[in-house]
Fold these 3 entries.
Entry 1:
Amino acid sequence: MPARLRDSNPVGRAKPPSAGLAAPGSRRSSCHSAQGSMIVIATAVAIAALGLAVTPMAVQAPADQIPRTWDGHPDLSGIWQAVGTAHWDVQDHAAQPGPMWELGAIGAIPAGLGVVEGREIPYQPWAAAKKKENFQSRRTDDPEAKCYLPGVPRATYLPFPFQIVPGTNKIMVLYEFAGANRVIHMDEGPPTPVDTWMGYSVGRWAGETLVVDVTGFNDQTWFDRAGNFHSEALRVVERYTPISPYHLNYEVTIEDSKVFTRPWKISMPLYRRMDKNVQLLEFRCIPFAEELLYGHLRKQTTK
């Protein structure tokens, strides 16, 4: 299947609002940064106190407004993208320096409200300590930095678009990052013989929702750049629900008895890319990661 697949109905799309940044390196910017952090935390606490979810409310569009395939199911075809900061950290986080201070504000981490239901990830004690270790070494240990396949659900909310291509008994999902892809089997076959980065996906329709059960993972991927991780016992159940012709509600239940004390959920909206001539482009990142992975093997010359 070609790497570049065009969307069938491109028109212009509105740009998301951008947040202002204070100038770094001054007492005023430090004050603004502290105030910004307090505002983010206070807002999250206030929302939680009111018993409200931090993710936008999904308002279902009338059924006759949702595009359909030939068999009457919602048509999820097109190019989609998450807009948010979950790729940095799926939990609430204040603005902070990035792992490479040399990049200055360019590499800084923007503040964000989390996408985790209940705001906390239920780590077992040893796993909570491991997550902190991952965070400290994220510059070199993050699988994304190494150009590993991103796994599920991380592939969905990386800051890259992805494409859903429905078929009769299979649904193909193509991701721009690292040329990753996976097949959702709507006619369940035998389980995968080996564990992989992207797992083995089996789908079914539950009313208007595409439910995908993903198993067969290895332990080589993270959930974000903050070091949230899992083991090879990971099971992911995704739910894609159209809420308009241009939006999907994406909900994920995550289970891993080796790492977490109970299942937990994340949710976020996905947006159909409506740019003129929108298409997936190539992001073959292996050459970008070679120095990180293999630089230490370079032959040292003596003078």
Note: Residues 55-297 form one domain.
Entry 2:
Amino acid sequence: MTRAEAGRAESAPFGAGLMRLRSWRWLSTGIVIGVLVFAIFGPLANMLLWAVAESWYFPHKLPVTWGLSYWERVFKPQGDAMESLANSIAIACLTVVVCLAVAVPAGYALARRSLPFRALILLAFLLPQAFPAVAVYINVARIFYGLGLNGRIEGVVLVHTVHGLVFAVWIATAAFAAVDRELEEAARNIGASPLRTFFTVTLPLAAPGIMASAIFVFLESLDEFTGTFFVGLPEVRTLPLLLFNASMEGNYQIASITALILLVPSVGFMLFIERFLKADVLAKVGS
């Protein structure tokens, strides 16, 4: 046997082992991706099936009867869904207005002024997310009951605002921090006042980030359940509350249709946000 043939004979087992290793790597990667796809799209597929199922019971793997009668029940004018949807949209819009009224001046001050304890101020807006929601809202409901805000839209808006300020202030601060200071200085050099510079230069340049923060707040308010449950019931009813009640009653068709109604704006707005949240803005978040 020549030296070349001996070398090929010795390298053959190594090459076969390398091929097996690559095969196992591809197989394990495929399994992981398959599990992730099932975890993400499996519940969505189940929800879509329930939304068009008239009847579905064990041991059938698919709905026994198909139809859209439950969609008609949801969208009928005198149904609870339309009233709940109107309440959800109204509360979300009011929450956006209140959050932006606080976030725009706060974001500008945090981004453009040398404030003492700036990091602590930003951290303070995260505190509502740091504690168990149920324990917090039970006590908030007790306080609001004493103030006459329980069961009123104003109380629900205040609760939603506390959570929405996390997104509004942090993203607004990043949006203002991403604005080039030289553009503001150029406007000041040609005679613009600080107020005019803000409204004609700074605010338009920061508008995409502020728009993105408004969309985040809107979606957070639209999907908020826990605060609305403890503060709004029984007078204020929103789509998440309708979804919860339908699920508890075993009416999975109504619950799935309601979930789809909530899912559509969430997906649409998140795709819309991609146009506004650029890398330079994201790099400033929390800085």
Note: Residues 19 and 25 are 10 Å apart (CA to CA).
Entry 3:
Amino acid sequence: MTVDPDILEELEGWSEDDDDDEGEDEGGAGADGDGEEPEPAKGDGPGSDGALVLVATPIGNLGDLSPRAAEVLASADVIYCEDTRHSRKLLTHAGITGVRLRSLHQHNEDDRVDEVVASVTAGRRVALVSDAGMPGISDPGSRVVTAVAGAGLTVSVIPGPSAGLAALVASGLPTDRFCFEGFLPRSGKERRRRLAALADETRTTVVFEAPGRLAATLADLAGTLGDDRPVAVARELTKLHEEIWRGTAAEGARWASSSPVRGEVVIVVGGAPETAAVQVEDGPLREALEVRLAAGERTRGAVDAVADEFGVARRRVYDLALTARNDPPMPGVAIDRE
């Protein structure tokens, strides 16, 4: 399919239009004047063809909306979307009119669950989309799917664009085994714990990140996984200014700090080298940790040193250090509890 360059150019403004505001409920043709959802237009009540359909939508290039996805959206009784304004642009491009739009985002998903289940039970065809990509993947939708499936109702999927998979296959890193990390916690103990887990992860890992936090996250990856851990950074995928940067974590941190990075970002992190399992009991590891901590080393440095000394996974030593924080320290041992 050849996509009109004017349409591609328009996409550059998508992420800049009203990013901080949530879309409001919007009535299409057939919506009641009070904004409440009308009676089923296509369903015949309980026992008919009611279903929840997850529809993948373009991650940038509107031409990536599949004909099947457009057909499902056009025939839906109601479309639940993360932001009605984003979805309205997509529907307009596809020539779809007269379908009711309802917002379903991170702040109201719990409130919408019963409503969606009731709609599907009543025989409605309910479509669910996010602003981009597959709903439920670091986007709202998973709680609704759980409830609908738990009620014994039909859930189906229209596959399509995925920023994580697109970045993975273009990264140049191994794709035979990979895992999805999503967005890392912004700060605190849970962020450090998740980063520590990645240090020993041998599979390629896909991480989502906001452009404003990219440099800091790459610096944290370098500090925890090692400066030379290979990474790829994909931004503006499928858009006019698509870019895929490849190098090491330390180089990536410097690159991201050198100039502002725009657009949605995916980080693909190479896995840790496979190492032969080393049979070491916990006792010697704890003793080595205690000696280093008693000498005034900080926890992170002590964990790294003990893991290297005994040839064991850093995560294992880190978990022992966390346990030590919660146990009364041995006489003369100062535990860093930061």
Note: DSSP finds twelve helices and ten strands in the chain.
